[in-house]
Amino acid sequence: IKELVMSYEGQISFKELKLEFEPPKQHFMFVSDEFFLNRILDNLVSNAIKFSFREGRIWIAWDKIGEEVSISVKDEGPGISVE
Fold first, then answer.
1. Helix or strand (DSSP H, E) at 12
2. How far apart are CA 6 and CA 24, in angstroms?
3. DSSP secondary structure string, 14-77?
4. Beta-bridge partners for 71
């Protein structure tokens, strides 16, 4: 996740964004399709950067919950309208 985010370093610096990583509470490994996981993460992170206001913050967290892995990307952008 950190490697993917660092590929956006130029855009993050340009918009003066602050990234905050919330590492997992415990070390774990999981099996996933790397290509599709990267595509999903790329979409979430690039949208967070694109829709964040200058000097905004983006939070990225991941953890294991039971037998599942939860990955979240949160930003301070306008969000999706009700319409």
1. helix 9-14
2. 19
3. HTT-EEEEE--SS-------HHHHHHHHHHHHHHHHHHSPTT-EEEEEEEEETTEEEEEEEE-S
4. 62
Return all residues near 77 (Cβ < 8 A) that are at least 6 apart: 48, 51, 52, 53, 56
Question: Tokens representing 7?
Answer: 């590929």
pLDDT in tens, 5-40: 888 899 999 999 999 988 898 888 888 898 999 999
**Lookup: tokens for 65:** 């919950």
8: left (phi over 0), alpha (psi -120 to 50) or beta: alpha
